[in-house]
Design a protein that fits this description.
Distance between the termini: 127 Å
Strand content: 15-25%
Radius of gyration: 55 Å
Number of strands: 35
Largest sheet: 7 strands, parallel
Strand order of the largest sheet: 3-5-2-1-8-9-10
Number of helices: 27
């Protein structure tokens, strides 16, 4: 049975289909199979994370991956080539207008910004090559806009916070996000920032992200259900930790900045490889020592001498002259430095005041109280010993005047140290000092929440004398307590205390409690005139019921919207800028009444009628009745008012006549009644004015509270930035220390490398370093005389290199040394006739580990030539000796035989083996032990150059008695010592046979 052939066309993977959505406007073509697009962002340490991600990601997952690392804009990226080794998916460097395909990897090019639109990558050149660029956030946002609920983002290792805002956008679009577990990241800045947002769907190690991602896409394709982000338990765990800290240390950190607390706790969790904050809370309970360590972590003791130099200059030039004004002789300046850390700020103020006192040339004294809750920091401050790098912050003049140079750094001099008293104090719960001239609290309030700041600022005011100076950091302020302080320098946050008893009353009443509840009143909405309202028809209907007097329609504020009839008798344009307010346009005699009536009608929602008003017109004074009717029933969304002016026939009051008349009593009664009406009218107008003023004040107060709230938010943000800056400075200081150590090591290593290079090049010894596989590590130029080496041969096996030494296998010798660890040495000869002494030694590391072998080649060609010459000279001399017919023997200074002629061996019947190297007197059973010969060699010859014709008679074993004539000569070396002795023996026995046995002595020698 044959199988049916598959239909032609692409095979579609089991991936979720992309439904048309009005949110992104992407409408797929009919039959188009859509696939997930995964954006992956990383920064420092991202290469390792990328490699691990793609090693564990299946190549047929059906997803497309877009990588956004932080790249150097000035260098070409090799990331695509590197990642291609870890996956079989095609890896591309993205190009503009690239359509994304499944099972492909795309990488952002250097110096480019990238976005996605309808599945197509869009590249652009950034305006700034370097600077505050956030390419990951930018791409994630475009991915969220383009893919909606199908958006997937992954944040891996990196420093900073790039990606967090993009993750928020993906979360807002309904997408899913994966964040690398910060404890597994090489750099945890980006993962920590993303996880702290509370919006991450999954927080996992890289090797688990891939499996969860595949599972998520598969589940989404089958069910279409998106995962719900896991609820964070960090808040409850943090509260338990802070409660434990309060019970163990007595310090309450609950009103410190929670972001700072969170970062410091997570830093300790990373140290102990704990990923769950509940687990760390239990760890704290079981390990009291960790509580003390965390307490130190929460106290960020980052400070320096004359921090923010411009701020200290402003303090010196603007604030100190105010303090020194009209101070009597022997006055004592009292200064408080809460949160003094290791004392640099307190000593800075002491030096500043010392200089100022010397400048004024007055006998002032200074007492500085420096406090902190960290007893270790107080101990450091009391010691007054600081490292040498404070020269970056302290001028050379101040270093010479106020410090003593010691071996390990600089120490504060006694005159400055005695000005400062250090003590442990909690500025939050302990009573403040009093009668202070200056309080310097810089970079402490930034770690407090606003409620805690509101408790501390009045305490500072209470501690200051009237006119005292409060010195804060540029990121801090006095908040809402403008009634307690007046600014001296707003930029550098220098304030002067105002006379006020509010802070004292607050401290006594609630023990530093100082709360301000801003009003929650929201400003009312302002409704603009509606173009659809038929005001003519509306006005006609109302006026028909009111005899249609001249009228206007206004809003609740009195702005005219519509005019009906002739209102010129009652209203006229006000001089100056054009205004549509009916109050401003009301003629003389109507303004106060119109204002009052509008307010009453708006407030009580009832009709207000004011009769008997007198208005001055162009024709004189006329009587008028004023009516104000609310129109809310006709247009509920707005408050409109109908203001009508109805003229009355009541004549104006006559002028008072002089003199008496019969109607005086009646006129007096009318006059009193008129005055009473005027008084009531004036009271009503005054009350209306007061109410209008109160309403305006309420609006101003509401606006002011909104501005204060905005200012507090900005200040809180600024304090957060300052806190991050402090932590970065702390980390930077640690990095600088490590970097300095590494730099010293590098310099030392460079010096050693230079020495080794010069040593190897100047000893003219060829050297080859081999690893355990006998592959070439490095070699010197002299080694090229033995092996045909080139610079590119590093890393190749030495066996692949042709040698200039025939018939000698040095590879086998090297392997033998590597196996036995026994050095080998042999002379070898090259094809060119050069001789080298080869030494093969094991290569030992500093840890005494065998890591290869070292082959050295010493040129011994000259030595071989000298040996050949010496051998030839010896042969030549031996031939001469052998040519002499008489026995000849060559002795050294110890009378040992160095050489002998053939006649000597034949005459006395000895062999070279029994002669050479033997003492002359010991030859042949001591047959040469002749006393006369002893005397010649030991006594005569050292004093003379030669002795000649010395005749001796001696019985030689084996040959009998012989008469010998001896001739000797000594050979002197450069030092004047005897080098060799030539001894010739002539046998004259036949001539002397039968003669007298008494030997005839010859000449003993000559000088």
């Amino acid at each position: 049975m044959t199988k049916p052939k598959p239909k032609s066309g692409p095979v579609k993977k089991n991936v979720p289909e992309r439904k048309s959505s009005p949110d992104n406007g992407a409408v797929p073509e009919k039959g188009e199979a859509l696939f997930p697009i995964v954006g992956i962002g990383a920064s420092a340490g991202g290469l390792e994370a990328f490699e691990l991600f793609f090693k564990t990601m299946p190549a047929d997952s059906g997803m497309a991956f877009v990588l956004i690392p932080h790249l150097d804009p000035g260098h070409a990226s090799m990331l695509s080539e590197i990642l291609q080794r870890n996956t079989t998916m095609p890896v591309h460097e993205a190009e503009d207008q690239t359509s994304i395909r499944p099972d492909h990897v795309y990488i952002i090019p250097p110096n480019k910004d990238m976005a996605i639109f309808h599945g197509v990558l869009q590249l652009s050149t950034p305006e700034q090559v370097r600077g505050m660029r956030l390419p990951i956030d930018s791409f994630f946002r475009s991915l969220a806009e383009d893919q909606g609920e199908r958006a997937i983002c992954v944040i891996l290792s990196g420093s900073g916070s790039d990606g967090t805002l993009g993750l928020r956008a993906v979360h807002g679009a309904g997408g899913v996000s994966f964040v690398q577990d910060p404890s597994t990241a090489k750099y945890d800045g980006m993962p920590t920032s993303a996880s702290q947002s509370g919006l991450a769907t999954y927080i996992l190690p890289v090797e688990k992200i891939t499996g969860q991602l595949v599972s998520y896409v598969k589940n989404l394709a089958q069910t279409g259900v998106h995962p719900v982000p896991m609820a964070s338990k960090a808040v409850n765990a943090t509260r338990r930790i802070l409660m434990l800290m309060r019970s163990k240390t007595g310090n309450d950190f609950s009103q410190y900045k929670q972001s700072t607390i969170q970062r410091r706790i997570e830093r300790r969790m990373v140290v102990h490889n704990l990923s769950d904050m509940d687990t760390y809370a239990r760890y704290l309970q079981e390990n009291p020592a960790e509580v003390a360590i965390l307490f130190k972590e929460l106290l960020i003791n980052v400070t320096s001498f004359f921090r923010d130099k411009e701020a200290f200059e402003a303090l010196e030039t603007e604030a100190l002259p105010l303090l020194f004004e009209e101070k009597p002789e022997n006055y004592i300046f009292r200064i408080w430095v809460p949160g003094c850390a290791s004392g640099e700020e307190a000593y800075s103020l002491a030096m500043l005041f010392k200089e100022k006192i010397d400048e004024f040339r007055q006998d002032f004294r200074v007492q500085i109280y420096a406090t902190d809750i960290d007893d270790d920091a107080i101990a450091t401050a009391r010691a007054g010993m600081y490292p040498s790098n404070i020269s970056l912050d302290v001028s050379p003049e101040r270093l010479r005047r106020f410090f003593t140079k010691e071996e390990t750094g600089f120490r504060i001099k006694k005159e400055i140290r005695e000005m400062v008293v250090f003590a442990v104090q909690n500025v939050i719960k302990d009573p403040p000092f009093t009668k202070m001239n200056l309080i310097s609290c810089r970079n402490l309030l930034i770690y407090f929440e606003s409620e805690l700041q509101a408790r501390v600022i009045p305490a500072f005011h209470y501690a200051l004398s009237t006119g005292g100076i409060l010195f804060l950091s540029p990121s801090e302020g006095i908040g809402n307590f403008t009634d307690l302080f007046s600014p001296v320098n707003k930029k550098w946050k220098i304030y002067r205390a105002k006379p006020s008893g509010l802070s004292a009353r607050a401290l006594v009443a609630q023990r530093f409690a100082w709360t301000t509840e801003p009003s929650k009143k929201e400003p009312g909405e302002v409704f603009l005139p509606s173009d659809k309202t038929n005001f003519a028809e509306l006005t006609r209907r109302v006026l028909l019921a009111s005899f249609a007097p001249p009228s206007v329609i206004t809003d609740e504020n009195g702005s005219i919207i519509y005019v009906h009839g002739d209102t010129g008798k009652y209203l006229q344009p006000a001089p100056g800028q054009i205004s549509t307010s009916v109050i401003d346009m009301a003629r003389e005699g109507l303004q106060l009444d119109v204002r009052s009536a509008i307010q009453k009608a708006s407030a009580k929602k009832t009709t207000v009628v004011v009769k008997g008003l007198r208005v001055r017109t162009n024709d004189g004074i006329r009587g008028v009745d004023l009516t104000v009717r609310p129109l809310t029933d006709l247009e509920p969304a707005r408050e409109l008012l109908l203001i009508s002016f109805e003229e009355t026939k009541q004549p104006p009051a006559k002028k008072r006549r002089s003199g008496k008349s019969s109607g005086t009593g009646e006129q007096g009664s009318q006059r009193i009644e008129q005055l009473e009406q005027d008084l009531a009218y004036t009271k009503e107008n005054l009350q209306a004015t007061i109410e209008e003023m109160q309403a305006a004040n309420e609006e101003l107060k509401s606006s002011n509270e909104e501005l204060q709230s905005t200012n507090e938010e900005l200040q809180s943000t600024n304090e957060e930035l300052e806190t991050s800056k402090e932590e970065l400075q702390s980390v930077n200081e640690e990095i600088v220390t490590v970097n300095a150590e590494l730099q010293a090591k590098i310099e030392q290593l460079t010096a050693v490398q230079n020495d080794m290079k010069n040593l190897l090049e100047n000893v003219n010894i060829g050297t080859i370093f081999l690893d355990t596989s006998l592959a070439i590590r490095r070699f010197t130029r002299e080694a090229k005389r033995v092996f045909r080496l080139a610079a590119a041969d590093t890393g190749r096996p030495l066996a692949d290199i042709r040698s200039n030494i025939p018939d000698t296998d040095l590879i086998a010798d090297a392997q033998g040394v590597l196996d036995s660890l026994i050095p080998r040495e042999k002379p070898v000869r090259t094809a060119g006739g050069e001789w080298f002494l080869v030494r093969i030694m094991p290569y030992r590391t500093l840890e005494n580990v065998i890591d290869g072998v070292v082959m050295t080649f010493s040129d011994i060609s000259a030595l071989k030539a000298v040996e050949a010459e010496a051998r030839a000279a010896c042969d030549y001399a031996q031939n001469i000796v052998d040519t002499i017919r008489e026995p000849l023997v060559v002795l050294d200074s110890a009378f040992e035989v160095v050489s002998a002629s053939g006649a000597f061996y034949r005459t006395f019947g000895v062999t070279p083996e029994k002669t050479l190297g033997k003492s002359l007197f010991a030859l042949g059973n001591r047959q040469w032990d002749i006393p006369e010969l002893h005397e010649l060699l030991e006594t005569v010859l050292p004093k003379s150059t030669t002795f000649e014709n010395f005749e001796v008679r001696h019985d030689f074993p084996g040959i009998g008695q012989r008469v010998m004539v001896l001739n000797g000569r000594k050979v002197i070396d450069d030092t004047g010592s005897i080098h060799h002795i030539l001894l010739v023996m002539e046998d004259i026995t036949p001539q002397r046979r039968g003669a007298d046995k008494k030997p005839v002595r010859g000449s003993r020698g000559r000088a």
